[in-house]
Amino acid sequence: MRLAVEPASPAHNRGNRMSACTIHQGDALTVLKSIPTGTVDAVICDPPYNSSAGGGFKAPARDKYVSGDAQHGLADFAGDQRDQRGFTAWLAMVYADCLRAARPGASLLAFTDWRQLPVSSDAIQAGGWIWRGIIPWNKPVNRPKRDGFRASCEYILWATHGEPYRHSPSIYLPGLLTGSQPHGNKRRHITEKPVNIMAELVKIAPEGGMILDPFCGSGSTGEAALAAGRRFTGIEISRHYAGVAAERLGTQTHQP
């Protein structure tokens, strides 16, 4: 299934016919093959962490990432039951496909937690990207740990396709981000990322540039990208969440 909005203005098309916002419902490894080579200015994504918290790799995502007193019934999501070697190999293939689609100088920004940070950096480098650093995401609402330290951070890994794109004028982005996940009826996905965090990340792409999210979930990256005058291509395996993202971003649904 392909979901798309009306074409962008000529200023945002940068010489091609790609629309301002397109969402593909399907598996990333399949859909990425259809993304034209060298057309993406930044890859910003939140892959399934496949962390073993709350019941192991085989546990549903809701059991791992939703507390027992949560006041929502958000849908589960697929792809979060891989073991470490399977996760690393799969993610490396996704990132290699993203590299092919990216322009030289494009950045990759990928979320992870502390458990998967080592293998996530391995997957990025195995996919051909140059690892540039880590941006901690400080979460004001977080979980305490008995006799230990609060789980107050997740992480964003930064990598580039060769030398980083040089903005004109130059930009200087923060190395520490703070923001809370949306609550109540504002929350659309179990692991939804805050739009204010995504608004900082999308600045890594030039104005009018194309941002690709191969795990777009409910569309937080797309919302931030469009608000900042960037274009957006999202891929989401879940039909449910692809529909949520489409509604959020004002798309028209097209059946295959």
From TrEMBL:
GO terms for molecular function, please? DNA binding; N-methyltransferase activity; site-specific DNA-methyltransferase (adenine-specific) activity
Q: Where is the DNA methylase N-4/N-6 domain?
A: 40-245
Q: Which GO terms describe its biological process?
A: methylation
Give a Pfam family name: N6_N4_Mtase
Its domain of life reads Bacteria
Q: Gene Ontology cellular component?
A: cytoplasm
The UniProt entry, under InterPro entries, shows: DNA_methylase_N4/N6 (IPR002941), DNA_methylase_N6_adenine_CS (IPR002052), RM_Methyltransferase (IPR001091), SAM-dependent_MTases_sf (IPR029063)
Indicate yes or no for the key word Methyltransferase.
yes
Keyword entries, A-Z: Methyltransferase, Transferase
- Which family is it part of? Belongs to the N(4)/N(6)-methyltransferase family.
PANTHER family reported for this sequence: RNA METHYLASE-RELATED (PTHR13370), TRNA (GUANINE(10)-N2)-METHYLTRANSFERASE HOMOLOG (PTHR13370:SF3)
What is the protein's given name? Methyltransferase
